[in-house]
Write a structure and sequence with these properties.
Structural class: alpha/beta
CATH class: Alpha Beta
Organism: Eubacterium callanderi
Shape: globular
Number of helices: 9
Number of domains: 1
Strand order of the largest sheet: 1-2-3-4-7-9-10-11
InterPro entries: BtpA (IPR005137), RibuloseP-bd_barrel (IPR011060)
Largest sheet: 8 strands, parallel, barrel
Protein name: Sgc region protein SgcQ
Helix content: 25-40%
Family: Belongs to the BtpA family.
Order of helices and strands: HEHEHEHEEEHEEHEHEHEH
């Protein structure tokens, strides 16, 4: 049994993304609508996810495009306000992801009592956002310094829109990440949000680190969820829950429910509760 049962109350868990609109300071922030519009959309999307039956939710500043690797204070402050406004409605476990800043993700997690974060904690990449460097040693020390020891760390080892600068395959990356950092989970992604995680890559990662939780991090849909969950311990799902399965749209509760009904059938078939 993994920590998923303890924290998310099930194995083969589905973490749904609650994508926040562009925030103050972001290029596409709607100044006329202001924070009230951001909060209203976040509340509507969150309730659609929760009422649709997902196991957990992860709040992220998905529309803070183009992303920063050293996120501004105003972004974290705005995210904290949004989650704080919604918090009285939350009845399921939740996490946060401040794209793409591991320390800021942990800061936000402590501020809003989130139980997990997903981030790029390790590696150096050539990316759409420029040269993308990390310092996992500093980040983990920061986690301890701010009292976030109990926040579960989901390591995304296949960053979207980026490539490892060193010539390393996914197996060696997974193996060394687990050995050096003891992550709570590894996340395996496609190229961009909504792009299917390669099943062969997912299997290789899980076979390499069988005792570590592995999530399919992008592109899990109703049509492939059984295959993906047969290989991974869980899935992070965003785009497929949107109206018509389009990234830019808001959450469609009926799509969520249909997806989670299939997940529950799969769990029953494989004797997972």
């Amino acid at each position: 049994m993994t920590w998923l049962k303890d924290k998310l109350f099930t194995e083969k868990a589905v973490i749904a993304m609650c994508h926040l609109d562009a925030l103050p300071g972001d290029p596409h922030f709607d100044k006329a609508g202001g924070m009230e519009k951001v909060i209203r959309h976040a509340r509507e999307d969150f309730l659609a996810l929760q009422e649709g039956g997902v196991d957990a939710v992860m709040f992220s500043n998905e529309f803070s495009l183009p992303y920063l690797t050293n996120v501004k204070t105003e972004t974290v402050a705005a995210m904290a306000r949004v989650i704080g406004e919604i918090k009285p409605l939350i009845e399921i476990p939740y996490g946060v992801n401040v794209l793409w800043d591991a320390k800021k993700s942990l800061d936000l997690a402590v501020a809003v009592d989130a139980c997990f974060v997903r981030e790029i904690f390790t590696g150096v990449y050539g990316s759409d956002f420029g040269l993308w460097d990390t310092n996992v040693g500093e980040t983990i020390r920061h986690q301890r310094y701010i009292g976030a020891e109990n926040v579960k760390l989901l390591f995304n080892i296949v960053p979207e829109a980026a490539a490892y600068l060193g010539e390393r395959d996914i197996v060696s990356i997974a193996k060394s990440t687990v050995f050096n950092n003891r992550p709570d989970a590894l996340c395996v992604s496609g190229l961009t949000a909504g792009t299917e995680t390669d099943a062969a890559v997912l299997k290789r990662v899980k076979d390499t680190v069988p005792d570590t939780v592995v999530f399919a991090n992008t592109g899990v849909r109703l049509e492939n969820v059984r295959e993906q969950l047969s290989l991974a311990d869980g899935a992070v799902v965003g785009t497929t829950f949107k109206k018509d399965g389009i990234f830019e749209n808001h959450v469609d509760k009926q799509r969520v429910k249909a997806f989670m009904d299939e997940v529950k059938k799969f769990r029953k078939d494989v004797n997972v509760c």
